[in-house]
Amino acid sequence: MAVNPMQLMKLRERFQIFQGQHPRMAPFLKDVGEHGFREGSVVEVKVTTPEGRDYITNMRVTRDDVETAQILHGLTAEK
Questions:
Q1: 71 to 19, 39, 54, 61: CA distances (angstroms)
Q2: CB 23 within 8 A of CB 47
Q3: CA distance 64 to 46
């Protein structure tokens, strides 16, 4: 799988916009990544639409999930 440098630059720009619009999310994810995201943890996600409909799911974190998160962190870490 080839990585397109232009897409990476676009992703970085979008991530900066996201951080500006949601300033508490990055510190939350950093804290979870350092202390809570490990094998056996449960991640639950809930989305509520403007109409009030809820979508909820969860997953138990596996060793493979932890490895994938570490790889993603390596891609996004500030150099």
A1: 21, 16, 31, 15
A2: no
A3: 23
Provide the 10 A C-beta neighbour count for residue 69: 15
Domain count, the chain: 1
Q: Using CA atoms, how far apart are residues 23 and 58, in angstroms rounded to an integer?
A: 24
The answer to the question of residue 64 being in a domain is yes
Q: Does the pLDDT at position 12 exceed 70?
A: yes
Residue-range definition of the domain harbouring residue 52: 31-79
Q: What is the pLDDT of residues 34-74, one digit of tens each?
A: 898 999 999 999 999 999 999 999 999 999 999 998 888 88
- Rounded CA-CA distance 18/33 in Å is 18
Q: Tell me, yes or no, whether 2 lies in a domain.
A: no
Question: pTM of the predicted model, to two decimals?
Answer: 0.69
